[in-house]
């Protein structure tokens, strides 16, 4: 269970668990950790209750009608007036009574959720790729100050504005524990804002079908105390660590020579490809390949040798390295804190 | 032409020779070549129904394969490439090649019978529509066998479906086949509208029309107004892909959202195009198995019409997450929840009709009762997703997959199977086994709920739709396994009906003309109906003509139609007063040839534009032959 180390507990496991743990899970809309998701979850429970009530009512009426028909002597049919009243009560008043409060409360929740955030809120630009997430942190002037991929850190308790973009197909940005989804439409920038109220690691996943590996296009959202976040961001702004050992230096050369640099950037080195994720601080990330496998050396080696095995269809080609080259490369990558 | 009131039997009015002559006139030629010339509405309707059910079977198998792949986390059974083709094909085939055509098929078969006429207004067009559908379906499935099936989802969003992100022929096949279906649906719709409005039996004023006929009429108008939007969008996409126009390409100033508006402007009504005829089937079955007039005929008609109208104002609720302005979208929330009212009115009219009735619990009625349980849940989750904030959480998740299967299977397939049991004796002249019917129902009902109910929770737990796999720590494995087990039970349930049907054709008990004691005109014809449907066109005096005749012991019919050519009575739109006689065309091969020529063009342009020119002239030629004036003696 590689992910469970850093993703919220999945609650009980086992056969009876699904119903008990109805609202838990690493990616559950009903396990809110942010105000938007909390409001929506709060809308859900009364809605479910009313829906269950309506279902029960209709099916009970139906059951009574049917069961009475099975009895020996026929029950009395409704006369015209009774039928009309039943139709008006059930067909018009009941839907109105059930849906008007529901619609009104969803309007007002919508207004709260989409209320503008303060201008000085932190802004993160997220760009949907096939099939991973490019993440840029912006300063007040909109300049990119740090770049990472597939893992977004935010300070707890502070609203964060996300600028959502795509330069390819449509994706959808979604962290169910925090808020509903917003699409990433090519040619426009959608904006969504959310606040994580509790520290934790939440999982987000692409919610608009975007091609072959739509299934494994996920990311982690790490909500941490503001100080920890600041330290993290500071780290992300820096260029990559210089190799400290000979093996690491060799690994860097492998990286530059074996074609990796054509697609990946490692800031502070000549590698400045932009087709794949920025690897400047790869070792600090918790997962690989869009939150598909944990970032451990074994998985990293497996991914580099044969990405198509881990994530068939991925845009990363396999590489043909000698065991020695691979070992130094991994050494180097592991050092990129 | 005169109206007379003879008692049955028919022989009082005309001789046995005349009956033979009538049979000869309306006869469909035999032989293999003859098969391609048939134009009678019952032939065409039956073909639509059978072909559509074959597609249901094929798409159902894809559904099961999808479920097998999802049964556990990180399974290797089907890879992403194939899985994406599977769900795209499953959705496309279910929606376009099963649900709409099967409803059209039932309407084509039963509307003329229910309004008491001998064929449809444009029999050759009818045949043309069928061949276009058949060819389209075969090509689409052929593409799956060649492993070049479309894989951009059943709503085929741009830019994923553009040439850049979907190279290869898959999406071309998709857009082209959708065009086929549009053409076929439009021909059926026009056909049904004219037949319903102008060919009803004398006396069947609009307010005496059977509820299924009303539903088919509303469905047809919806097709006429909805289909053009998808014709436009798929044509623009074909142009983008084949001749590099830029309608949807951002870099060229195009707009991907345009596709979504056009598609859903069609796509939302399309769901109701499937649902509305099913509502008509439910009313029909309830009337017959409660053996009394339904309560709220007018209310039922008005609600179906209202559903038809309102469904055109809802399309944006498929686009709540695209970043459109909140206020504008709120309008669509309001419009979407209002659908609850006409649906509620229908449900409670039916409950009022069932209350205190002597219900006969035959198989068709069972499927209708199953419909209630499932459809109410599907309708309520539908209201839920009309809420913008809630929808942003469940949109594109398995909650949605659960919702629309509750509506589509519960709302359309269950009534459809019920209607199949109900009308089976009319179509085939044989009864199906009641015991097998009940087994089939219970298996399908339980299997359905076990399959789809857990999906609500999966969606709330964050499982997106259209994913071929999921990592183990998501904790979605147990419910998915349950759903997969359910789908096997569900498939077994439908399988029992299939076996029941085959068995019935081979050795089912012979059916009388009216085995269920129903009140509508189709049951006045033989089982199966003769090629001319009715020996004498009936005259109608109420909504329940067969019950009237039973009481009166006699019936009024129209006499004076000629036996030596295909004559039908035309009546006025509102009150069905006879106004004339129309001669319908006879069997011919040309609609088939024409459909083949048109298909050559549509399919050919995927490969080379020259096919457009070739097909243009071929079709023009076949149309000339098709409309070649009939011999004068047949046309006086
Ligand atoms: C044997 C019964 C059926 C089973 C087991 C089944 C199963 C499924 C499943 C699991 C999906 C989700 C696939 C995914 O998101 O990865 C799906 C999608 C879908 N189903 Fe079904 N289904 C059945 C019958 C039907 C019927 C009767 C209809 C319509 C009349 C239908 C229409 C659709 C549509 C439109 C989609 C969406 C396809 C897409 O995402 O493009 N299904 N089905
Ligand atoms: Cu995506």
Automatic annotation (TrEMBL), chain A:
- Which SUPFAM superfamilies does the entry link to? Cupredoxins, Cytochrome c
Per the record, membrane topology reads: Multi-pass membrane protein
Membrane spanning residue stretches: 48-67, 88-109
Q: Where is this region: Disordered?
A: 304-325
Q: Which residues form the Cytochrome c domain?
A: 246-337
Top-rank taxon, per record: Bacteria
Q: Where in the cell is it found?
A: Membrane
Transmembrane helix: present as a keyword of the record?
yes
Task: Indicate the segments forming the Cytochrome oxidase subunit II copper A binding domain, all copies.
Answer: 119-235
Q: What is the protein's given name?
A: cytochrome-c oxidase
Automatic annotation (TrEMBL), chain B:
Q: What are the alphabetically sorted keywords of the record?
A: Cell membrane, Copper, Electron transport, Heme, Iron, Membrane, Metal-binding, Respiratory chain, Translocase, Transmembrane, Transmembrane helix, Transport
| Ranges annotated as spanning the membrane | 48-70, 90-115, 127-149, 169-190, 211-239, 271-290, 297-317, 329-354, 366-390, 402-424, 436-459, 479-503, 602-628
Q: Write out the pathway annotation from the protein's UniProt entry.
A: Energy metabolism; oxidative phosphorylation
PROSITE patterns hit by this protein: COX1, COX1_CUB
Pfam families, from UniProt?
Answer: COX1
Q: Which reaction does it catalyse?
A: 4 Fe(II)-[cytochrome c] + O2 + 8 H(+)(in) = 4 Fe(III)-[cytochrome c] + 2 H2O + 4 H(+)(out)
User: Which top EC class applies here?
Assistant: translocase
UniProt subcellular location: Cell membrane
Please list the residue ranges annotated as the Cytochrome oxidase subunit I profile domain: 35-541
The EC designation for this entry is: 7.1.1.9
Q: Which SUPFAM superfamilies match?
A: Cytochrome c oxidase subunit I-like
- The UniProt record lists the keyword Calcium: no
Broad class of the protein's primary localization = membrane
Q: How does it sit in the membrane?
A: Multi-pass membrane protein
Q: Which family does it belong to?
A: Belongs to the heme-copper respiratory oxidase family.
Q: Which NCBIfam families match?
A: CtaD_CoxA
Q: What does this protein do?
A: Cytochrome c oxidase is the component of the respiratory chain that catalyzes the reduction of oxygen to water. Subunits 1-3 form the functional core of the enzyme complex. CO I is the catalytic subunit of the enzyme. Electrons originating in cytochrome c are transferred via the copper A center of subunit 2 and heme A of subunit 1 to the bimetallic center formed by heme A3 and copper B.
Q: What is this protein called?
A: Cytochrome c oxidase subunit 1
Organism of derivation: Billgrantia sulfidoxydans
